[in-house]
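B., you asked whether I could sanity-check this one before it goes into the benchmark set. Here's the sequence:
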Amino acid sequence: MQVNTVIRSMLDARGVSARATSLDLGRNDSFVGHVARASRVPSIATVADVADVLGYDLAIVDRTTGEELGRVVPPRRSAG
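And here's what the prediction gave me:
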């Protein structure tokens, strides 16, 4: 699944708008809408921040074993 689809899926699952999520992140109201576009390739830090504000974790998982190697700490949380 492409990252923009993942972001849209998280928003849809939580029933939250991209605008509200942008504001929760302390960004301008169109930020999440822009990074969720198919033409964009947001950084892993941005995806981790969006996931965090929506109540998700970003994890690195071994494809073969399914073992979780670790979770990405969202920069907005680690900065505090």
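One thing to flag: The beta strands are 58-61, 68-72. Otherwise nothing jumped out at me.
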